[in-house]
Amino acid sequence: MENGEIDLIDLYGAFKKTATYRVLNNSLKLITNNKLLFIAFIIVGVSVGYYLQTKKAPVYKSELLIDSAEIDNFVSKNIISGLNKLFSEQNLTTLNKNGFSNGTTQSIISIECVPSQVKIKNEDQNIFKLAVNTLKTDSLIQLESALINYLNNNKYSAHLKQESLTQYNTEILELTAAINELDSARKFIQNHSNSTQTAIHTSLASISHEKLEAKVRIIELNNLINNIDNYEILNGFTPTNTPEPAKGKYPLKFGLLAFILGFLILRVFKK
């Protein structure tokens, strides 16, 4: 053998002399010599796990279709993640402030933001679905109201709403001032103009047109203020009496646990 090469046979022989090898070898012998007992342990563990899984409280799934005016779906998903954290931490104080009652809070398993298959009419639409897993369906209306309230009044949405309100109100003030100036200009033309009737009529018509445009824009801005919330429900929850199929890894977990427990018991009594 050349210098620097490793002799695998010598390496294996050295490994067989170690305590680690003896432990592994004895463990393997314990398992192979008691196969039926280990199978029995695993069967009992899997059976217990399956029983516990079937006895879990039924979980119901409902979906809510929502449209977002300005906030994109990536941000909406992060907002929902923050809400899920409040549920997992059972932060009842914050949840109660947003309209989630204690009973509703305790019945929520999870809320997921999932892509919607609804055909989008234009690129500005941000439509998504909220899939809610809950232990009961008798409070879906209250949950729906609380969810839309949270979406529209969380810190991010509230900040965006305040910025829009400031912008709209500022524009209304500017348009109101412009209308007052147009009224003053109209009175001045009517009382002091030396121009021909045709010129006066043209000037007054132009002022009336600008004033009308300003008033129409003010109406649009007031409508925007009245509908300032970013999120809107397109389709509400549809109650269901059919629970979701039982999910979980109870059989696998309890089967593994039973195997480990059986190994420890046999190791003690088979010495």
Write a concise keyword list for the protein shown above:
single chain; 271 residues; alpha+beta; Alpha-Beta Plaits
Care to describe what's here?
This protein is α+β, with helices and mostly antiparallel strands and 271 residues long. The chain has 3 domains: 69 residues, no CATH class; 105 residues, Alpha-Beta Plaits, CATH 3.30.70; 68 residues. 64% of the residues lie in helices and 11% in strands. The chain contains 10 helices and 4 strands. It has a 4-stranded antiparallel β-sheet.
Helix content: 55-70%
CATH topology of the largest domain: Alpha-Beta Plaits
Which word captures the global form?
Answer: elongated
- Number of structural domains: 3
Low-pLDDT stretches are: none
Rg calc: 36 Å
Beta-strand percent range:
5-15%
Tally of strands: 4
Mean pLDDT: 82
Amino-to-carboxy terminus distance: 43 Å
**Helix vs. strand class:** alpha+beta
Elements, N to C (H/E)? HHHEHHHEEHHHEH
Q: Count up the helices.
A: 10
Please give the largest β-sheet: 4 strands, antiparallel
Oligomer: single chain
Chain-wise SSE layout:
Blueprint: H1 8-16, H2 19-33, H3 35-54, E1 60-68, H4 73-88, H5 92-97, H6 102-107, E2 108-115, E3 126-134, H7 140-153, H8 155-192, H9 197-226, E4 231-235, H10 250-269
Antiparallel strand pairs: 1-3, 1-4, 2-3
Helix pairs in contact: 3-10, 8-9
